[in-house]
Amino acid sequence: MRVRLRFSKLGKVRFTSHRDVARIWERGLRRASLPVVYTQGFSPRPKLSFGLALPTGAESLGEYLDVELDVELDFASGEAAAPAARGGAAPHGPALDLEALPARLDPALPVGFHVQGAAEVPPGTASLQQAVVRCTWRVTVPGVSVAHLTELVDAALGADSLVVGRTRKGHEVHDDVRPAIRSLEVVGPTPAGLSRAGATLVAELDTQPRSVRPSELLVALGGDLREERVLRTHQWMQLDGALREPIGLPHDATRAPYAQARAS
Amino acid sequence: MVSVWPQLEPLLPRVQKPARYIGCEDGARTPAHGRGKVSWLLTYPDTYEIGLPNQGLQILYELLNERPDAVAERAYAPWVDLEPLLRAGGLPLFSVDSHRPAGGFDILAFNVSAELVYTNVLNCIDLAGVPVRAAERRPEHPLVGAGGHCTYNPEPLADFVDFFVVGDGEEVVGEITEVVGAWKAGGRASRDDVLRELSHVVGVYVPAMYDVAYHDDGRIAAVTPRFADVPAVVQKRTIADLAEWPYPKTQLVPLTEVVHDRLNVEVFRGCTRGCRFCQAGMITRPVRERPAEQVRHMVREGLRRTGYDEVALTSLSTADFSGIESVVAETVDDPTNCGQVSVSLPSLRVDAFTVGIAAQVGKARRSGLTFAPEAGTWRMRQVINKLITEDDLYGAVGAAYSQGWRRMKLYFLTGLPTETDEDTLGIATLARRCADIGRAQVKGASVTASVGGFVPKPFTPFQWFGQNTLVELQRKMYLLRDELRRDRGVQFRWHDPRATLVEGLASRGDRRLGPVIEEVWRRGGVFQEWSEHFRLDLWTEAMAKHGLSIDWYVYRHRDEDEVLPWDHLSAGLHKDFLWQDWRDALAEVGLPDCRWTPCYDCGACTGYGLEHVVASARPPAGGSQGTGQDLQRGGEVPVALMPRRTAGRR
User: Fold this and answer.
1) pLDDT tens across B302-345, in order?
2) Which of A115-124, B406-415, B596-605 is the least confident region?
3) Of A110, A125, A140, which residue constitutes the final position of a domain?
4) What secondary structure letter does DSSP report for B95?
5) Which of A42-46, A72-76, B288-292, B549-553 has the lowest mean pLDDT?
6) 8 A C-beta contact, residue B109 and residue B145
7) Cβ atoms B212, B154 nearer than 8 A
8) Hey, which of A106, A116, A127, B536 has its CA 20 to 30 A from A168?
9) 3-class secondary structure, A238
10) Nearest residue in B to A21, CA atom
11) Are residues A98 and A160 in the same domain?
């Protein structure tokens, strides 16, 4: 059974890398005694697959991973479930109660990680890497006024192409990032409490054929800008022509934990 | 004390591995500082990923935080990309728990496990905003302490460290806390007062309380206490029973990758195999096993709490643990682990590694396997008292390959006393034979032969031996490299002989090296154990500048009557026992393990009223158990197989 989990990553833990997060999840799933399926072979690993890597240092309100669970095992009791319980209508015990998964996983994860939802993924569903086409980012840019940043944004949106140089596999390449910018808006000054005053930008950036990072967006805007806080608020999949999140949340649910983490 | 986090946070996006500095580990304590508490900053003078797993530091972290009169946090040396940013921003060394400035703690306590970190100790003290020289500190500055294996020769750091702890730290940190707490309560008047008081604590060495006199030829004439109430000889501390110390209870689980990233459970402390090159085996005697039931509990609870899928059973020679086979089997077969937990045995003697252990260990993931034959010929292994036969090695290697391993690592030393080129080349022969055994069973099997230059250490029978010169060690490494060049089955790796030279300098140096260490640090020589930052030129130039001779400190053979820089400290071992063992080494005479034979009176037990704590009075099955004899059936007590020493204590 493949289960998709949505989680947030806020506060000090934003400095962990994508690889670190993978290890944190491997340990967390074992701590929560979830029956994760392992790969076969010489060096078995738990079957986990993550979505698009979040840059080290960025926070997120919408991270995902898919995990393969063995429905016939209930680790909480330390034994395989009785055969009669398999596939029947009877609940499989706590390990398979998707509603209860967030509450079960949160204590097993470091402070700063919070599981927001879980859903079963039918076999044959596209992987997160393939399915996600766009991300929404909220970026604070210090040392710039709202008016000036708005000018830069307007200029960028009016341009036919925005070429930035970036390093890929050790080679310097030049890419046009303009087609990947779906929307770009200065939403106001930076919140109080950050080290320097500045402006806050919300951007929707395509992830395919190649994703554009917020840092690359700022280079494209010109003006020698540097991001201070980067928050991924949403990841979007294309489904029947409409955009929707892999796991949606009730309205405003994304705001509360963010404010909470900021305060800590 | 306020947190430096608000100033630190904006710097972190500019460094390579920011997760090194965030703390947040599972198992980390929320420090509650207070007026009546003595605050310790337990500092590992190397990077976070090297220092975090250190078990000694974690044990003291828990013990101190359990005390009502103490609070402990941790710090690690900032990497070379963060340090300039800290200095430019006027930020000090900080704790990772609550990001407090290091200078606000009562005690800066360093774990010193390797000689090459000495300059990092100075750098951390300086980054804390504390004068690096102990003599220049004022009462408001933290006390600077150090413990760990290197402090058995504390003299090179004597100028910079206020007090050293020699031996096991579990009990002594409480006594130190009490002394420092009373000093604080009394108004923190004079540093001399508290240091004088600390020198009365058994296991604590305060270098400022001793004068050193020298002969004209540079040798030490005497080290004498400056006051009658200061002990002439500082005795090491030893906890009698590991069962009373089931620590760490909540091992720290880091958020980012570290070395030894797994659950670690110490199964015993001390080792009496008697390998003559091994300082750890000499200074940690006697053997104190943890009861098998407690090991099982710590493994089970630790895995459940941490979520690790690997547990290491640590000690100086884990296959010697009385309950080894059953503990390994029960962990691997525990149904709650669902076959996904692997056990690693980091220090394996080949003469105790059986097919049974190999099969158990190999059931889950097979991590790397490392054996340490240490020397290439039987003659050489008799000299160093690592009495394993070639058949032991081939049997162990064969057992591992038969259970599915494809690669293994063999550790060797070169530059040992009496070593000839035949002995050195024996390393290549052994490694090649092991690779052949592997390829007969597994396609693509290979062996990595890792060779390090030998550094004589204090409190070992080889403490009198003149280390091989840099040129000689390089010649031996090239000899092996050329010999193994065309061998596809053996990969040859070696430890840089230049680093070995500096280790030798610090290992047996005296107080006169202080200015050299300070000079190397001032010229930017930090992280010297990292090959990309190691600078031999800084060391040789500093030695020359201060009129000191590398030949004299490193390459010179010492005589029996020479006062060694660490003679005013005691690891319990009688000096004449060590001298006799040194003569035996030169005579190629081995000495069996005293766990299972009559006592040689080395002094470690008798001097402190201690005894071995072992569950089984019989050696485990398999191999020759250091006797050169076939003991496959196990349980036989190998008495008097080697020519016995007749001399007792003289």
Assistant:
1) 999 999 999 999 999 888 888 888 888 888 888 777 677 888 88
2) B596-605
3) A125
4) -
5) A72-76
6) yes
7) no
8) A127
9) strand
10) B255
11) no
Shared domain for A143 and A174, answered yes or no, is: yes
* pLDDT by residue, tens only, chain A of 264 residues: 899 999 999 999 999 999 999 999 999 999 998 989 988 876 778 899 998 999 999 999 999 999 999 877 655 544 444 433 334 344 444 446 888 999 999 999 999 999 999 999 998 888 998 999 999 999 999 999 999 999 999 999 999 999 998 877 788 889 899 999 999 999 999 887 666 789 999 999 999 888 899 999 999 998 889 999 999 999 999 888 899 999 988 754 444 444 444 333
Task: Tell which of A125, A155, A178 closes a domain.
Answer: A125
Strands (E), B215-301: 220-225, 234-235, 263-266, 268-269, 288-289
Q: Where are the domains of chain B?
A: 5-215
Q: Positive or negative, the Cα torsion across B595, B596, B601, B607?
A: positive
- Tens digits of residue pLDDT in B122-141: 999 999 999 999 999 999 99
Query: Could you tell me where the beta strands, DSSP code E, fall in B460-597?
Result: 490-494, 569-570
Angstrom distances, CA of residue A120 to CA of A2, A61, A144, B82: 6, 20, 44, 44
Across the interface, whether the CB atoms of A16 and B23 are under 8 A apart is answered no
| Facing B18 at nearest CB: one of A33, A56, A108 | A56
A86, A15: one domain: yes
Residue B3 sits at the chain A interface (C-beta within 8 Å): no
Closest partner residue to B308 (CB to CB) among A27, A79, A195 is: A27
Residue of A9, A13, A14, A16 for testing the chain B interface, max B β-carbons within 10 Å = A16
Chain B contact for A143 (CB, 8 A cutoff):
no
Four-CA torsion B524, B528, B530, B533, nearest 10 degrees: 30
| Residues A121 and A190 placed together within one structural domain of the fold | no
B335 in contact with chain A, both atoms CB, cutoff 8 A: yes
Give the per-residue pLDDT at A259: 41
- Residue B102 is predicted with a pLDDT of 98
Nearest-by-Cβ selection for B13 from A46, A57, A78: A57
Check if B30 contacts A (Cβ < 8 Å).
no
CB-based contact, B366 to chain A, within 8 Å: yes
Q: What is the nearest CA distance from B120 to chain A, expressed in angstroms?
A: 25
Q: Does A41 touch chain B if contact means CB atoms closer than 8 Å?
A: no
Nearest to B344 by CA among B427, B409, B255, B434: B409
- Do A178 and A63 lie in one domain? The reply is no
Q: A245 lies in a domain? A: no
Which letter does DSSP use for residue A209 in this model? S
Residues of B in contact with A20 (CB under 8 A): 19, 255-257
Closest residue on chain B to A32 (Cα): B307
Q: How many angstroms from the chain centroid is the CA of residue B152?
A: 11
Q: Which of B532, B534, B554, B531 is nearest to B473 (CA)?
A: B554
Q: Which of A20, A46, A79 sits opposite B255 (nearest CB)?
A: A20
CATH code where residue A94 lies: 3.30.70.580
Q: Is the ipTM of this complex over 0.95?
A: no
The total of other beta-carbon atoms located within 10 Å of residue A20's CB is 18
pTM of the full structure? 0.92
Number of domains in chain A: 2
Predicted confidence (pLDDT) at residue B229 exceeds the cutoff of 50: yes
Does residue A98 fall inside a structural domain? yes
Q: Which domain holds residue A165?
A: 130-228
Element of type H or E holding B73: strand B70-76
Q: Which residue of B has its CA nearest to A27?
A: B307
- B481, burial (CB in 10 Å: exposed 0-12, middle 13-18, buried 19+): middle
For B307, the closest of A27, A35, A44 (CB atoms) is A27
Q: Clarify whether residues A7 and A108 are in a common domain.
A: yes
The CATH code for residues B5-215 is 3.40.50.2300
